[in-house]
Write a structure and sequence with these properties.
- Pfam families: AlkZ-like.
- This is Winged helix DNA-binding domain-containing protein.
- Keywords: DNA-binding.
- GO terms for molecular function: DNA binding.
- It is a single chain.
- This protein is of the alpha+beta class.
- Among the domains are: 9-24 and 202-273, Arc Repressor Mutant, subunit A; 282-389, no CATH class.
- The protein has helices at 14-24, 36-47, 61-67, 76-83, 107-114, 126-139, 161-171, 190-193, 205-220, 225-228, 236-249, 294-301, 360-377, and strands at residues 9-12, 50-51, 87-91, 95-99, 175-181, 184-189, 252-257, 260-265, 282-283, 322-327, 330-340, 345-353, 382-385, 388-389.
- The strands form 4 sheets. Strands 9, 10, 11, 12, 13 and 14 form a 6-stranded mixed sheet that branches.
- Strand 12, helix 13 and strand 13 (382-385) form a beta-alpha-beta unit.
- Helix 9 (205-220) crosses helix 11 (236-249).
- The chain is globular and about 65 Å long.
């Protein structure tokens, strides 16, 4: 940001910044009127995306993240919304469900892949891609397993050439995921998936950059250029330009938090007038939108978080799948959880409390109430805390 156009600036304390982030993230969840299914769509539209993940020691990340914004959430909502073409799968910073309302803005990235300005992690076998596309055009929706061809196990997941072709066609926008069957993708032609009235005009770089800025700030309260362009290549200059324009328009304001500079939408800090629950504990998914940028998390919440399922067992400090816990407006603990299907028990293998947690008795009462709800969400009859530290 050039700074020449800054006409309004605000200083926030760290606790005020945390509150703004949590209110913008809809944490803890508040009851929404209307159908539960509609509340789920509202959450996806507000957040902009919800990350999909395959780990299932507890409910998968996309279900968990949405349950934390809508306590009436049911896992079948995702399939329903996909079938209704209200959401679709594509790439945010990772594989995600996105609102169909924002479909047009996925085209900027898709076109970049198609034109070779972005490189896919798979090589493009264009002859095979055309064969795969033609078969789906003629036969209708197909899964990777519907195509013959040997896998090369040395290359790991998705190494079958036709699977690679499917994913390349998906990333460049020729194919979409029309549904999932037992969590496996079903691919179909894009024109047969999107609603007929969908805007398919490709946004300019400036339009796309403005979309990234406004979407990020709506869902996160305040942000910096590096956060708005997280894992997106080649967009920093365009986003900086848009922020300068929006500061000049006075649709953005600058925010200072303990010497660190952010921007926010005009009127965003008015949210601080709203109350936020400081008695309810919330168990978060490691892939929750609020947590995914670890440097931001450390700066704003003083919470140093590493998902240890990717760490060798002997080097883990907290456990395989530790879930951060929000309470009293801060991240104060983490719980290594696992569903024991044989006993229908949610096992908390390790509940680790942060040094900053002072009111331990009040926290333990709150976390036990939350664990009761989380157990039910995971189709368990009860929960069991096995180990607490310190």
């Amino acid at each position: 940001m050039k700074g020449a156009h800054v006409v309004y600036s605000e200083k926030l304390s760290i606790s005020e910044a945390q509150k703004l982030v949590l209110l913008s993230q809809w944490l803890p969840a508040k009851y929404q009127k209307g159908k539960a299914h509609d509340a789920t769509l509202s959450a996806i539209e507000h957040l902009g995306y919800v990350q999909i993940d395959t780990i299932s020691v507890v409910q998968r990340a996309h279900h968990h993240t949405l349950w934390n914004r809508n306590r009436r959430y049911l896992p079948e909502h995702i399939d329903q919304l996909t079938q209704q073409r209200a959401i679709f799968e594509y790439w945010a910073h990772a594989a995600a469900y996105l609102p169909m309302r924002d479909y047009r803005f996925s085209l900027f990235r898709k076109q970049a892949f198609k034109e070779g300005r972005l490189r896919h992690w798979y090589n493009h076998d264009r002859a095979l891609m055309e064969q795969v596309l033609e078969r789906i055009r003629e036969e209708g929706p197909l899964m990777a397993k519907d195509f013959s061809g040997a896998s090369n196990n040395s290359k790991g997941w998705g190494s079958k050439p036709t699977k690679q072709a499917l994913e390349c066609l998906f990333m460049q926008g020729d194919l979409m995921v029309s549904e999932r069957r037992n969590f496996h993708k079903v691919y179909d032609l894009t024109e047969r998936v999107i609603p007929i009235d969908t805007d398919v005009s490709v946004p300019s770089e400036q339009e796309y950059a403005r979309f990234l800025v406004t979407q990020y700030l709506r869902a996160n309260g305040l942000g910096r250029v590096s956060e708005m362009t997280y894992l997106l290549k080649g967009l920093k200059t365009a986003v900086c330009g848009v922020i300068d324009d929006m500061l000049e328009e006075q649709t953005l304001v600058t925010i200072e938090v303990e010497g660190h500079h952010y921007v926010a939408c005009l009127g965003a800090i008015d949210q601080l007038k709203r109350p936020i629950s400081r008695t309810k504990a919330v168990i978060l998914s490691p892939f929750d939108n609020c947590l995914i940028q670890r440097q931001r998390l450390k700066m704003l919440f003083n919470f140093d978080y590493l998902l240890e399922c990717y760490v060798p067992k002997e080097k883990r400090q907290f456990g395989y799948f530790c879930l951060p816990i929000l309470w009293a407006g801060e991240l104060v603990a983490r719980a290594d959880c696992k569903v024991n299907k044989a006993t229908a028990t949610l096992e908390v293998l390790h509940l680790a409390l942060e040094p900053k947690l002072v009111e331990k008795a009040a926290f333990m009462e709150a976390i036990e109430q939350e664990l009761q709800q989380f157990a039910r969400f995971n189709a368990c009859d009860t929960f069991k805390i096995i180990r607490v530290t310190p």
